[in-house]
Amino acid sequence: MNKEQALKDHQAYQERVAAYTLALTTLNWDAYTIAPKKGGPYRNKMASYLSGELFSITTDPAVIDRLDLMSTFDYDEVTNREVAQMRKEINKTRYIPKDVYVAYNNLVMDANDVWEEAKATSNYALFKPVLKKLIEQTKLVVSYRKDPRPVYEQLLDDFETNMSTKEYDAFFDKLRDDIVPLIHKIKEKHLTRPTWLSEQIPLSQQAAVVERLAKFLDYSKDSGQISLSVHPFSQDFSAHDNRVTVRYHEDNFTSSIFALIHEVGHATYNGQVNEAYDGRYIRKSMTFGMHESQSRFLENMLGRSTAFWEPLYEDVVKMVPALKKVSLKEFVEGINFVQPSLIRIEADELTYPLHVMVRYEIEKGLFNGTLDVENLDKVWADKIEEYLGVRPQNAAQGVLQDVHWSGAMFGYFPTYALGSAYSAQWMKALRKDIDVEKALRENQFTLIKAWLKEKIHTHGGVYEPSELMIKVTGEKFNPQYYVDYLKDKVTKLYHL
Ligand SMILES: [Zn+2]
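That is the input. Now the predicted structure with zinc ion docked in place:
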């Protein structure tokens, strides 16, 4: 096969994959938003048929051979990248014996059921042997990659390319040294959470605020959709179809506000990738850390600032009369309230990365042999207490709270904190070009959105985060910006 024919076949292959993916994406969206429960079994059956077809298409040996061949030719930059990334992905599984692969997938599926039961009954002993097996089998499966790096290094790289324990250690050391003392200082102040944060706000009022925010963020119904689901998420269909969901809690109305801003951050990223990449692998190959950096940029860097709410707050108070007694200043203080707590997904901006750090330290220890699964519930509780000053009373509030390990997603957690840290560095670069506060105050989020498109979004997955960081900010990833941002913010907020 010659160079041109290989490219032609490659394009036809991607189109086929994209068609199946769009069908499955649509079914997934439907299932999590409006589909009636009773139709589930039939939908799942049809979806699994489509997934099976897609699996056969993508694991066809001819596809792998063609990618190997294409890697010997020189195409345009984007195609070269795409081929390299697809081969990297395939190399993770191509040498695993089928029986090992099937056994591994079955283990992961069963592990999820065990974890659910263990969490519901707060019984770590039930999950412990399964976790042990998951770690052993993950090590085995990774060993077939013929990659000389230690297993955990490879796992970290799976979720965030070019990140290793060396970079993460430096990052988390900085957080531990600079943020933990701040948290203890704030805790000593014994501040009480403003009561208006948990006031009962009718869902219709919350929905009105969400609509207003979508408008402010230039999130249009022409290419988006806001639906309801149990857990907020965003779903990418194509350049002109990026949907989000929210969830309303009657006694925690700021939750829906920040869920919306966060998910619109993801949707804006997907929606601003170069349209010419629609249907291609490169459109969706952004890393976890990069994606989180965009959602958290909107949610935290912009959405928790005074300038963001200045042009909006009058409208918000009209929509939510309960806020009449809350000044803009009090509102901004409230949405930035710091309170060490036990559950990661409910944590505030300052304590959040330390929840992630606990998981990173434990994962690293489990894979390099300095920790084992025995007494992991206690190890977890000790670390949370050391960093946050609060202690889980049971395993459900501690080691069993997250789904990730039951799905063998080791190496995923650190990207959550990394995304926030990246976003502080993007902010630094953005400020060189745009007066961010002025743009927000004057209702011109579109200026910031256009900057994000030009500098970051349009590239999709063409560049590694480490390359893009240098391209956009002029230097490599530097966690100091994030630490400075957090320190500065809470020092002012709490007069430390
Ligand atoms: Zn996210």
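The mean pLDDT is 96.
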